[in-house]
Structure formats: C-alpha cells, structure tokens
Amino acid sequence: MANMQMNKTPMPEQEPNVRNANFQEVALGYTMEQAQNEAQRCLNCKNKPCVSGCPVGIPIPDFIAKVAEGDLAAAYQLLSDANALPAISGRVCPQETQCEGKCIRGIKGEPVSIGRIERFVADWAAANGIANVATAPKNGHKVAVIGSGPAGLTCAGELARMGYDVSVFEAFHTPGGVLSYGIPEFRLPKAVVKREIDGLEDMGVKFEYNSVVGNMATAEELFEQGFDAIYVATGAGLPKFLNVPGENLPNVFFANEYLTRVNLMKANKFPEYDTPTKHGKNVVVFGGGNVAMDAVRTAKRLGAEHAIIAYRRTEDEMPCRRAELHHAKAEGVEVLPLVSPLEFVAGEDGSVCAVKVQKMELGEPDESGRRRPVAIEGAIEEIPCDVAISAIGTNANPFAAKIGGKMELNKWGYIVADEETGQTIISAVGEAQVSVLLNRLEDRTKVAAKSVPIRIPYRETIRRTASAQGRHKKQTGGAGQYGDCWLRVEPMITADGTSDGYEFVDEVVGGRIPRSLIPAVDKGVQETMKDGIIAGYPLTGIRVAVYDGSYHSVDSNEMAFRAAARIGLRKACADADPVVLEPIEEITVTIPESYAGAVMGDISASRGRVTGMETDERGDTVVIAQAPLAELTDYSTRLRSITRGTGDFTMKPAGYEQVPYDVQAKLVERYEEGRAK
After folding, report:
1. Is residue 404 in some structural domain?
2. N or C: which end of the chain has fewer CB within 10 A?
3. What pLDDT sits at residue 658?
4. Which of 226-230, 343-347, 410-414, 655-659 has the lowest mean pLDDT?
5. How many Å apart are CA 218 and CA 251, to the nearest integer?
6. What number of other Cβ atoms are within 10 A of residue 466's Cβ?
7. What is the C-alpha separation between 485 and 27, in angstroms, rounded?
8. Do 264 and 277 meet the contact criterion of CB atoms below 8 Å apart?
9. Mean pLDDT across the stretch 110-135?
C-alpha cells in the first residue's frame, strides 16, 4: 500500500554542535524501516518522469519497488546495473534538479527521496559484502579514459561492464577527482569513494596515477599504443578569478586550492600532516554554489568563529543544493546576500585583514532570466576577515587542448556540443565522408555506429495575454504548505517581431504576498518554462506578472509558492494560445542558372521562401532564401541531386517562427506518446 505522507522521511544526522567539531559524515543514512517507509511513497507512475531526469537512466521506480518489498538484493542489482557508483551518486548527485525534480509527488508535497534510498541500498550491499562486478567477456578492445573524476569513473565502469579493457589515466596521485579533493569528508567520506573505485578495479579497470596525458602522451601516441578509443574527462578545475585588487594577498584562497589542502593533503590534521593552511577566525567565502558551501563549512570545522557566505544575489537565488544551505545555516554559517567584492585589504603583516564589498540590489532580468545585481551608489562597507575564499566557479582544465586528436574545443576549452540538444555533431563534406567516418569508427572500436537525425531545438511561446490562479495547499496533521498567487502572462515581442526573452514583474501591493516569497514565484515560473507547456520544449518570449495572492503565516514557504507558481503558469499559458516555434535558417545557394527554377521549387516545397536572387562574378545564380531547419537537415543530398553536384550552399540562423498547426499537432502528439510510455 502506497504511503501518502506529503513530506520526505527525515534522515538522521549529527547534531550541529557536535559535527562542527569533526569531519565525520553529517547525514547518517536511513534505517531499513525508514528506507521502506520512504520507498512506499513512490507512486510508480506510468510515464516514470524521474527516469527522464536521471543522466544515467536508472530504473528508479523498479529499484524503489524492490526496497518497499524488502528485497534489497534485487534492488541493488537493478541499481548497480545502471550506475557503477551508486553510493557516491546517492550522496552528492543534484537530485533536486534531476530525478527528484521530476517526481510527481513534488507537485503537492515533497518528492520521493530517491537519493537517500539509493545511498541506503548501496551501503547495505557494501555492509553485506555484495558487489556487482560482473562483466561481459573481454572483446579485445582497449579504451583510454583521461581523468578519474565522476565522468571518467562512470565511463570506465560502463565500458568494463561491456567487456572493454579500460585504463584510466589520472594526473594526481589518487583517483576520484573532485570526489577526493573537492567534496569534504563530512559530505562524502573518502572510504566510500575508495570502496566504489575498488569495485571498478575488481571489474578489471586499471588506474595509472601521476599521468598527465598531453605531457606524457598525445592522443595519437595512445592510439599507437593500441588503444582503440579515448574518452576525455579532464574536468573543470581551473578557478575563475574575481579580478579585484588584493586577490593575490596571503590567505586569499581559491576554493579548489583550499579544499584540496584539507581533503586530499590533510591540512586539517597539521602538524600530523605537514600541509599548512590558515585556520581563520573570521572567514568570508564569495559564491553561492555547493563548492562555496563546502568551503565555508570546512572553515567552520577548522575553528572559524565567524564564517560568512557572501553572494551577489539573494539567498533564494543561490544555486547550491537546499540541503547544503540548510546544513550550513544550522552549523552557524552567516549568509550575507546582495554584496560583491571590491578589494581585499592587506593588514600590517601583508596578509588579508578585510574585504571591501559593494552592496547590491536586484534590477532587471539578465539573459539567464534571473534579476541582475545592480550596485547601490555609495553603499560600500568593509568586512573584517583573516581568510577569504573565492568560490565563483571554474573553467575547463587546460589539458584537453594538449591531448590532440580531432576534438573541437570552444573558446573556454570545453569540447563542443549543442547546448540545447546535447548532441555532438560531426561535420563532414557530404554523405560519403560521413560514411567513411562511421566505418572508421566501427572498424577501430567494433561498435556499430549509425547516423541519427539532428535534433531540432524547437521552442514554445504564447500569442495572447491570459491570467490564472496558482494555488498549492496541503495539510497532513503537522506543518502544512500554502501558496497562492495570481499570474498574468503576455507575449514579449522583440523589435523584429519575434518572440524571445523572459521578464518577471512584481505587481503585488498591500503585502498580499510577502516580499521574501516573491523570488520563489519567479523560480517556480522559470522551472516550469524549462519543460514547456504543450510539447516539452523550452518556453520563451513571455512576460509574467504576479499581481495578487495570499499567504499563511505558518504554512507559507518557498516550496509552496514555487509549486503554486508552476500550477498558475501552466493554467495561464493554456489560455494564452500556446504555440511551438521552429528555428529558421537563411540559406544562400550558388548554382548554374539552368538549375535556378528547380532549386527555388525545392525551397518552396520545403516550406521556405525566396528572399532574393542575384548573379555572382562568375555568372552563377545566387538564390537567397529562408526555410525551417527541420526541412534542411538533408539539403546537401537534395542539392547535389538537383544540380548534379554543381551546386553549393551556406546556412546561418535567421531566428524563430511559428510552426504550421499540422506540424505542431504532430509534435504535441509525439510528446504525449512519450509521456505515456
């Protein structure tokens, strides 16, 4: 029988006054009874949205059902078949934005605690000496994995299970990447990391330490050594700079350096280990992500009397996991919102003694949809500190550029992929070259390769103004949840007549909704926009105004108003003539004059329109047209056929336009069919 309690089953944890003095794991894990109780909250939905939110496709309802039945061995089998590192991912994966973020139970309560159940199953298996190290027979092919962070370890485990001979090359003296040097012991015990890596070694994965690929060997040299393929997982460990005066003062750290000293080099155990680090009494950390939380909570355990998180936006907009923020505040961490560093000040000894910060306020939304921090003129203050830590993000490690091979890197050093569709596209001149590349890949790796259609980055928008109430209310005997907001949605039309962007407007007066809860409404709206309204594509070109609502002095909170906003946005958009937009390409075709009529006819048949025609210096005809990208994915083949190989063309984006209603109907139908599976 399903457990219909609205809230997650609490997980036991160390008391804050106890854990502040140690580096032992804060969360103590479920008991069998607690795990089963939480597992019984799963509704085993028909369309299984949680699975779509899992990057590795764990059959979440299936393994949770086995936990509910008490069959932990079967649960572990299902879990470990899909995930080589379940004890790690159960602890540190961002479940709230992935699997749990898709959970149906989260609409009218809290989602099922998938991560906690996953951790419980993995820890139970380890305690009972159960390990899933079965692999397929060796297939005779070797793969080099460069980097032993989460991505590298996951890839190594999957390949080993498939029968590949895998060697992992790690630049450090120990494996794990950020799992070892970045995430603190109190969040991810290193014994757990070692246990998972030992499991990979039992599967036959080999680890080569102190091996910086790019210096010791290039991609070409690895291929010469007999490797059939290379997986690049070099990570993003290069810190971003604040670019303010005093950033290089003593005791001003980058978070990666600070955490590496403590986690990997045991600086917390000085002088037992001879890696010193400053144990500051007044510590300021700049940033709002998980790394910032790790750094400030580490500083607290190293004896900080005042440990401050300074962030340029509000607390509600911090990108960290909510659990980490909750734990940090319980441990005495102070949150200082809406400040940005201006200068680190040197004391008499030359080390940092204070930081000057600019006080901020939230202005208009930026390109990400979040309200942009704007400096308040003349509002500058100085915060005393003897340790300052920058945790504002990282860039790609530079090793990828040294590896060589045929990787395409962007200007930030990341491997190029389409950010919207997630595809890495091989560029080639014609189908013949594509065929050669696929055959070469299959010959080298013995993996059957095939081409698939390019995913079209459709979007959604609305065509008229509409309003609706979003109301979220639950009461189960204890603390309830209550959120109530009225939303008005209207199209945002740019100067060129297209729909683009997002704007959130606060029109609430008279305290109908507390100011502190308005950002939660904005957040709920943006969360819903990512998944679209009718066909599963991102929603854009919309202005959302919250103009009325109500709240409860006890039961109203951020979660309740996020849920209310999601309900209200869907209802309002349903009445606002939602439509699907498709990308339009400007195509320039150069052909002999005799083929002009056939080319223009083909463009018209592809839902395109000719916008111009001219003659170039060689006497060829140049046709300029616009057509949907969805109709042009095979245009090189069509043009070659029409012109007998004499035509040439270029394409560039020309914006978005509404799809015809028959096309939209097919996209909506396909989306609904996918949800029903």
Report:
1. no
2. N
3. 92
4. 410-414
5. 37
6. 17
7. 35
8. no
9. 94
Residue 623 tokens, joined:
């046709």
What predicted TM-score, i.e. pTM, was given to this entire model? 0.70
Angle, vertex CA 667, rays to CA 665 and CA 671, nearest 5:
115
Query: Residue 208: beta bridge partners?
Result: 169
415: which DSSP letter?
B
Q: What is the CATH number of the domain that holds 222?
A: 3.50.50.60
| Mean of pLDDT values over 176-194 | 94
Structure tokens at 283: 């510590």
Rounded distance, CA 403 to CA 676, Å?
Answer: 44
pLDDT tens digits along 238-250? 888 999 999 999 9
DSSP β-bridge partners for residue 491: 542
Rounded Cα distance, 174 and 194, in Å: 10
664: its two tokens: 């939209």
Based on the fold, state whether residues 276 and 373 are members of the same structural domain. Answer: yes
Measured CA distances, 209 to 56, 62, 100 (Å): 27, 38, 36
CA angle 531–536–537, rounded 5-degree value: 80
What is the domain extent for residue 192? 142-237
Provide the percentage of residues in the chain whose pLDDT is more than 90: 60
Pairing relationship of beta strands 621-628 and 648-658 according to DSSP bridges: unpaired
Q: Could you tell me if 365 and 305 are in contact, meaning their C-beta atoms sit under 8 angstroms apart?
A: no
- The structural domain count of the chain equals 5
pLDDT, tens digit, for every residue of 591-627? 999 999 999 999 999 999 999 999 988 889 999 999 9
By C-alpha distance, which of 351, 92, 387, 170 is closest to 261? 387
State the number of CA atoms in the 13 A half-sphere of 564 facing the CB: 31
- Do 264 and 151 share a structural domain? no
Q: What is the pLDDT of residues 543-556, one digit of tens each?
A: 999 999 999 988 88
d(CA 108, CA 582): 33
